[in-house]
Design goal:
Number of strands: 13
Order of helices and strands: EHEEHHHEHHEHHEEEEEEHHEE
CATH architecture: 4-Layer Sandwich
Shape: globular
CATH superfamily: Ribonuclease Z/Hydroxyacylglutathione hydrolase-like
Helix content: 10-25%
Bound molecules: zinc ion
Structural class: alpha/beta
Number of helices: 10
Strand content: 25-35%
Radius of gyration: 17 Å
CATH class: Alpha Beta
Distance between the termini: 12 Å
Largest sheet: 7 strands, mixed
Strand order of the largest sheet: 6-5-4-3-2-1-13
Length: 273
């Protein structure tokens, strides 16, 4: 498969979270130890249109660009506010960065939501004018489960008209469930369960090379290199299986990059395929 003109992937950092270290990298529970991690979204310039992957934090969560507990608690329940401790510097929300690139929400052809945790859907509030919003049916289905209703405040995503897709049996992925978005293998949504049941990673492929966006199946490249199963997740066994798959993919010679959403070692950049 070869798309002339190519595919461009913009890695955007849309603020930060300050998580307990164990949530990101496993190990013993030491609540006092926290790590600052970026929150990413990705803009894909694809011949089928402009695609945004995840939405990061909205401005309302950090009105002055710093961590403001009162502002966060207006949007998130206290326990989630204390868990994430989000902040977004001025100009850094996904919406603001797109605006600086002269892209309005209505210019977006598609927003893909890898899963429904607040650091991935908060920005929907500012971006819901996109032509289409899409997530996995399996992710929506499991919001019925109490653990997810506690993790994923419904007000952040339920008001918006999000279409869903079903995974299909596939030779790709730890769960052998995937969805070829355009039928040409250029963008494949691969179920990587563990952090949530329905979450997907993306394989973006062109001209014999691919980029893998892992979402929260890993918190950094260290996660799969050292097999550090994140402490934050629903099913540790499935998380481990997803990490093993990421490790295998990252070692393939045609892998141009394998990128975790919250990797502190990643920097904003543009990758061309
Ligand atoms: Zn996340």
């Amino acid at each position: 498969m070869s798309i002339s003109g190519g595919i461009k992937i913009h890695v955007l950092h849309c603020g930060c979270v300050s998580l307990p270290r164990r949530a990101a990298f496993g190990g013993p529970a030491l609540p006092a130890r926290r790590v600052d991690l970026p929150v990413s979204a990705y803009l894909i310039e694809h011949p089928q249109g402009l695609i945004l992957v995840d939405t990061g934090w909205s401005r309302e969560i950090s009105p002055r660009g710093v961590y403001a507990p009162e502002a966060v608690r207006r949007v998130l329940p206290r326990r989630l506010a204390d868990f994430y401790r989000p902040r977004v510097a001025p100009g850094q929300t996904a919406c603001e960065q797109l605006e600086a690139m002269d892209i309005s929400p209505t210019d977006l052809d598609l927003i893909l939501l890898t899963h429904l945790d607040p650091d991935h859907v908060s920005g929907l509030k500012e971006l819901s004018g996109a032509k289409r919003l899409l997530m996995a049916e399996e992710e929506r289905w499991w919001t019925a489960r109490t653990v997810y209703s506690l993790r994923q405040p419904r007000a952040m995503w339920e008001p918006y008209p999000i279409d869903t897709f079903w995974y299909k049996g596939s030779p790709i992925g730890p769960n052998r469930w995937a969805r070829d978005l355009f039928g040409d293998e250029s963008v494949t949504l691969v179920n990587v369960p563990g952090h949530t049941e329905g979450m997907f990673a993306l394989i973006i492929k062109n001209r014999g090379r691919f980029v893998l966006l892992s979402s929260d199946a890993a918190f950094s490249s260290r996660s799969w290199r050292e097999m550090l199963v994140p402490g934050f997740g629903f099913n540790p066994k499935a998380q481990e299986k997803s990490l093993l798959w990421l490790r295998e993919q990252s070692r393939l010679p045609d892998c141009a990059a394998c990128i975790a959403n919250h990797d502190p070692a990643e920097k904003p950049r543009v990758i061309e395929l």
